[in-house]
């Protein structure tokens, strides 16, 4: 069992027709994220995590981990230099945070599904909240082709 929960703190969904890649990566749809397994939790209640970028990067991590049964991937929070390490050993996945002693262990399949659901929920929220077609720079983050 693995799940990702989030809370939106700040959203800038108006006047996004000229949004830049940099704005999406640092300033767009900011909030908190928590990672849960059946026995552990890693909370990131910093209120400034760019949720769409985080979801997009997790999709890339899933894709990279899928390419090799034994590998590691990292996510670095540029705002505070903290990291999450994702280690895959066949069908098992371990998540270690530089800012916590908690270690999450889950299956890769559960992690993959939770990341997909998290990205889908964020993307659908944005699509419902904006007027018209998303700009092309935003579309890149909304639909991940894996």
What are the defining features of this structure?
146 residues, alpha+beta, four-stranded antiparallel beta sheet, three-stranded antiparallel beta sheet, 4 helices, 36% strand, globular
Question: Any overview of this molecule?
Answer:
The chain has 146 residues and is an alpha+beta fold. 35% of the residues lie in helices and 36% in strands. The protein contains four helices and seven strands. The model has no long low-confidence stretch (mean pLDDT 92).
Termini separation comes to 23 Å
Shape: globular
How much beta, percentage-wise?
Answer: 35-45%
Counted beta strands: 7
Report the structural category: alpha+beta
Low-confidence stretches: none
Q: How do the strands line up in the largest sheet?
A: 4-5-6-7
Describe the biggest sheet?
A: 4 strands, antiparallel
Gyration radius from CA atoms, angstroms = 15 Å
Number of helices: 4
Overall pLDDT confidence: 92
Portion of residues in helices?
25-40%
Order of helices and strands: EHEEHEEEEHH
Which helices and strands appear, and what pairs or packs with what?
Blueprint: E1 2-10, H1 21-26, E2 30-37, E3 41-50, H2 51-66, E4 70-76, E5 83-89, E6 92-97, E7 103-107, H3 108-129, H4 136-142
Antiparallel strand pairs: 1-2, 2-3, 4-5, 5-6, 6-7
Helix pairs in contact: 2-3
